[in-house]
Amino acid sequence: MDWTMLGAYIGMSMVVIAFSLETRGRVSSRSVVYLTSMAVGQILLGARAYDTGEWPFVVLSIIWAGVALLAIVKPRPDE
Known about the structure:
Number of helices: 3
Distance between the termini: 42 Å
Helix content: over 70%
Largest sheet: none
Number of strands: 0
Shape: globular
């Protein structure tokens, strides 16, 4: 198993666990933990997609991670 496949498994686990915790009300979708898990998970998944030439998924991963990082760096004014 190469490093991008291992990273993809880790990234997938991060995204799924964060989403599962959020849907069960254990973590807020606006929390730094949730957003960081989404961003890092998508970066790892995007690295694998890049390595295998899956360009639509690369674009999706960049956007998903970018939105999560933006929410961390620049939270909504009411928070």
